[in-house]
Amino acid sequence: MIAVKISSKKDFMAKLLTTELFDSYYVEEATIETFNTFNIDGHINRDFYKNDDLEGESAVPDEYSKWSELRTLCFDLIKGKRTPLGFKFILHPDNETKNRIVESAGAGLAPSDVLLGINIRFTGDTIIITTGTAFKIFSLDKTIEKAWDEYIPSFMSHSGIDTTDYE
After folding, report:
1. Which of 4, 27, 141, 165 could form a disulfide with 42 if both were Cys (CB 3.0 to 4.6 A apart)?
2. Is the Cβ–Cβ distance between 8 and 137 less than 8 Å?
3. Average model confidence (pLDDT) for the chain?
4. How many other CB atoms are there within 10 angstroms of residue 23's CB atom?
5. Contact of 145 with 109, CB cutoff 8 Å
C-alpha cells in the first residue's frame, strides 16, 4: 500500500470529473459530503435488469458500475460555488488493466483471486490517493501488491497528474 498526495487539486478534479481518464475504472463506493452526505453503492443490482430481453448473467457482466456511468452524477453533486466538505471514491481498475498487472507480476495467481483498488479521499484541503490489494486466497507473495503500487504513480505521472509522497 502506498499513499500519494495530489499536488494540484483543481487540475486533478478537472481530470477526474470532466475527462474520460478514469472512465474505465469500476466504482465500489462514492461518498460526497456537501449540504447532505450522498452515498453511492457501486454494486450493480442485477434484479433491476431481470425483465430485460437480454438473457442471463451476460446481460450485466460486471459487479460494479463504471466511473463513466457515475461521473456526471458525482460532478453534479460536487460542482458549485462551495467546496465540498469531503469525498471518498473507491475505484478498481478495469479487467484488462487488472489482468495485465497481475500477469506481469508473475505470482502465478489468477486475476479473479485478486482485487486491486484505489481510495481517492478529499478532506480539508488535501486529496490523498491510497492503493490497496486484497486476495481471495491465502498468499504471502507481495509481487502483485508491489506491481499495483508501482502502476498508480506511473499512471498519474503519465496522465499529467503531479503527486508527492504522503506521510
Report:
1. 27
2. no
3. 91
4. 13
5. no
